[in-house]
Amino acid sequence: MTAFRHLPTGVSASRRLFAAALCTAVLAPAPAQAWETQTHVGLAEQAAIAARLDAHLRALGWSGGMFEPLTVPTADAPELLASLAQHSPIHGYVPDTRGRQTALGWLLAGSALADATPAWAANHFYDPQTGDGWRAPSALDERWLARMRTQNTPARGVPAPDWVISRDNPLQLTGFLDQYEKAMRAPTAGERGRHLAGALVAAGAILHALGDMAVPSRVRSDTAAHREQVGNDELDRGSRFERLATVAWGRLGVPTASRPVRRSSLRAFFTARAPGTAGTAGTATADGERGLADWVAAGYFSPATLPRVVAIGATRREALAPALTASLRRPAPVVPRRLNLMAASQARGATLRDDAGVCQARYRVEDGRLSWWLDDDCLLEQAAAILPVAAAYEAGLLAFLLRGELAITADGDGVAIAVGATALGAGTLTVLGEDGRGVRTALTTAAVAGGGTATALGRATLPADSRRAVALFRGVDAAGEPLVAVGVFVPSSSP
User: All domains of the chain, ordered by start, with CATH?
Assistant: First the structure.
């Protein structure tokens, strides 16, 4: 069952995706609850470059790569286009009046719209120590309670790793796979382009949810940090950390991704924790892998999870280290046994830095009391260290979504299909032929058991007028993770 189950069966698949996703986005006020839009768009753009999206799309037959123009007709997705029309065209993800923009633009659009409603934004939190997602702060005045009710903000959200596969999320993994499959299977080029746009919107939204795991307050249950006043309007509330990143980097300044992170499952990009489990934040799997939420939660404080104040005036030297340990609200980051208390007694205080030299917090001793805080310069140092890592995780996740590939080669009057670089489990293999008009028709469909690299999956005879053959697998990989795998073959006689 898909996220489109409540919509009329006569509505096109693209329209069902976009209508379910965006029917409320046009009316909802934009929440200040995530990396702000331009940061998310910049992260998705860097992910697309690092994941070689351009080369992948060209290999599948879109000669323009990630700059291939794709059109979503207004009649197919009026809510989507109306929502995007509220954004400025200069941002690079708003289609023209025909519903036309590049493949990259559609990916960025999905990233921009993933938290278009407060109800969606509430599902972009996850604390690996507790397993919890968003929880409304316990202390809310009547004005804020009324605002939450007006915006339909839930008291509790779905944890982000669960949200990206939730049936209640119209831009989740199944939506991506459905649209990606149809982008290869649909008869005409126009239909295939429309479905590819839908797949990229869903992929962008999934990247957005992962990118939010790079914000310390989101992975340390610090929801109060998202009610700070960040603008001149008293109701312009959100995360100061996220607002500073937007001001400092915007979209185009987001740092380049380091090498794309590789993980064996969708969830592993978020956390090493299995569903329904919790424990010490930052614990890795046996092979040393950590999700983005694990890494950030273990490495950075957030405003409400700084160490507690320690009265050191009357504390004996040998008791200071245990007192500092006891002041921690969480096991990590740790406070070293020795601090520069002399520097901390000065007006500017002192700085706690991690092994890479990045500011973790400021500390000061006043009236015999050791206290901690985060200033803007410290937060900017953290963002500068976190953003390229976030982009690397997003790049890895995008490559993971597109990882399925099939080897398709000439075989007499037809083609032979084998498993590509990603080992496959069970699924269904369809071979399609594309004629000179660009129309694709299914030639064979069969259940297959999968196998390792180069395992033969089947063959098909091609009609004499075939200009292209496409092999399409829908099932799971060897680890049981859902995927769509594709192979494209162009006969040597084709123009």
Answer: 13-249 (no CATH), 307-373 (no CATH), 406-489 (2.60.40)
